[in-house]
Design brief:
The protein is of the alpha/beta class and about 190 residues long. It is about 20% helix and about 30% strand. The longest helix is centred in the N-terminal third of the chain and has 10 residues, at about 35-40. It has helices at about 35-40, 50-55, 70-80, 115-120, 135-140; strands at about 5-15, 20, 65-70, 90-95, 105-110, 125-130, 145-150, 160, 170-180, 185-190.
Length: about 190
């Protein structure tokens, strides 16, 4: 019997827990060559399709075949004219305010993202990547099985938190960690008991 797919929140955060600045900025994260090479090799599917093309990455998906993101995570792609930012994945955008999406490769989900995740977990396939944002992560917290947190050595001050919503302490257990030359660290967490 094949096990259930997992919902994995693979996310970059600042020291103060921000995934982006107040204007959706992410360019304040210090990137390093060793970390970029590692992400490209280990999590190639988490790079947008147009970036993969620019970097010459044609690697198969290693962890995820499905992506769930909120409107705030999706809109930066729309601003640069990309309606299907992760064409190599099955894409869902959760939003009650976004108009129609003009790309058949991206499905708009207007309500009940918890039901969506539960349904996806029962389907065969690779794990499901929760790409962001903080509000959606807060709603989906009951279904998050793992966290892959890329912690960068920078304080953002203001911005979008990794999780927002109701107070709901949820225990996760560190499973592994890896450090990089830019001072960043990736830590894997599994849902605790």
């Amino acid at each position: 019997m094949i096990g259930l797919r997992k919902l994995v929140y693979y996310v970059a955060v600042s020291i103060d827990g921000r995934i982006a600045g107040p204007g959706d900025e992410t360019d304040f994260y210090p990137l390093g060559d060793d970390m970029t090479a590692w992400m490209s090799a280990e999590y190639p599917e988490t790079l947008p399709t147009h970036i993969r093309a620019q970097l010459g990455i044609d690697a198969p998906n290693k962890h995820f075949d499905t992506l769930i993101m909120g409107r705030g995570t999706y809109e930066p792609a729309l601003r640069i004219g990309v309606a299907s930012p992760y064409a190599h994945l099955r894409q869902y955008v959760v939003s009650t305010t976004l108009g129609a999406i003009d790309d058949p490769g991206v499905e708009l989900v207007r309500n009940d993202p918890l039901k969506l995740v539960r349904d996806l977990k029962r389907q065969p396939g690779m794990d499901i990547w929760l790409c962001g944002g903080g509000k959606l992560a807060g709603v989906l917290l009951p279904e998050i099985d793992e966290l892959v947190v890329k912690s960068y050595p920078v304080v953002a001050g203001d911005g979008i938190p990794a999780f927002s919503g109701a107070f709901s302490p949820t225990r996760f257990t560190p499973a592994d960690t890896r450090a990089f030359g830019n001072g960043a660290r990736v830590t894997w967490f599994t849902r605790g008991a």
